[in-house]
Design brief:
The complex is a heterodimer of chains A (194) and B (126). By secondary structure, chain A is of the alpha+beta class. In chain A, 41% of the residues lie in helices and 22% in strands. The chains are: A alpha+beta (194), B alpha+beta (126).
Chain lengths: 194, 126
């Protein structure tokens, strides 16, 4: 599996996202977070802004831009987990996987601090999942990242025995099962397998 | 769940684990893997790709989104007409359900205790 996942951590810096894009680097000063958010069509919230900026860095594949992005948008502990050369290599590899230009779509946002974005390579049409996690309070810095090929993820389960997991399509099906077992004390739990 | 089943050996207890899609990597295969980890003859596993089950509880709790990360306990004799009835006990990790029912060690103990009481009542009933 082609995945890199970084554990969540909290940072102490108080930089806001709008400040992240001012000053230091000329390229950043010319592009506002609103421009990026609009370009990548993410909601106007901290997660949307962080994810838009990350996609922009992936698309640009420009070392100076990426270096600045990491400096501004990563939580301190995430930055410290790896040397800058490894962070940059992660971006280079992802840009290579995606073979620009790529398209974003299929967004799953199970919480305001966690998003999973489907990215499709413009050349090979291969589908990838990008996972972004941010802090739950200002300045909402990025605390975790994941990236994997959807095809690789499916291969992971090729040999799993599915015979013990029945498929439910309608609530009525489950209601019938539940009512048929009315002589039992019953526990119902609804969970994500991941 | 493992802890509750370990502490309650009663065969009159049934558990339905409904695996649903909250994240991009949730799949039937991922559910199969988790089902292997959570193996007990009293457990039935289901894969609900459309989140139909979680949506079933939306009117029960007046929730805007499908229920997930939830644990509902129902006594013997309970059946549903249209929508699920309010459970005899519940635990959850959602913002929209009662805070005092949040998943915690204390509530796991209460959940287990209530399951034992419901099982004792069911022995007399059936």
């Amino acid at each position: 599996m082609n995945t890199k996942y970084v554990t969540m951590v909290l940072a102490t810096t108080t930089l806001s996202l709008s400040l992240c894009f001012q000053g230091i680097n000329a390229q950043f000063s010319q592009t506002t977070s609103e421009d990026l958010r609009s370009k990548w069509q993410f909601p106007d919230n901290p997660l949307g802004r962080r994810t838009s900026a990350l996609l922009e860095a992936l698309e640009r594949n420009d070392e100076a831009y990426t270096r600045q992005f990491i400096h501004d948008a990563y939580a301190q502990d995430l930055r410290n987990d790896y040397p800058m050369s490894e962070h940059l290599a992660w971006f280079t590899q992802r840009s290579k996987d995606l073979e620009r230009p790529f398209r974003a779509g299929g967004v799953v946002m199970p919480s305001p601090y966690h998003v999973e974005v489907g990215l499709r390579s413009g050349k090979t049409e291969e589908l990838f999942t990008l996972i972004v996690e941010i802090e739950q309070k200002e300045p909402y810095l990025i605390t975790g990242l994941g990236f994997e090929s959807v095809a690789d993820a499916a291969k992971e389960y090729e040999h799993v025995d599915l015979s013990k997991v029945d498929i439910l399509n309608e609530f009525e099906e489950f209601k019938q099962i539940f009512n048929n077992d009315s002589n039992y004390v019953r526990i119902v739990t609804i969970l994500s397998p991941t | 769940m493992k802890q509750v089943l370990r502490n309650i050996k009663n065969e009159r207890l049934k558990v339905y684990v409904i695996w649903m899609t909250a994240f991009a990597r949730d799949s039937h295969g991922a559910a199969g893997t988790r089902a292997q980890e959570l193996a007990d003859d009293r457990i039935r596993h289901y894969w609900d790709a459309k989140n139909a089950t979680g949506r079933g509880w939306m009117p029960t709790f007046d929730m805007p989104r499908p229920a997930w990360d939830v644990y509902f306990l129902y006594g013997a004799g309970t059946t549903w007409a249209d929508t699920p009835t309010y459970p005899d006990f519940l635990m959850h990790q959602l913002g929209v359900l009662p805070r005092e029912q949040i998943l915690s060690n204390e509530n796991v103990r209460k959940f287990e205790q209530m399951a034992k009481e419901l099982l004792a009542q069911s022995q007399n009933k059936f």
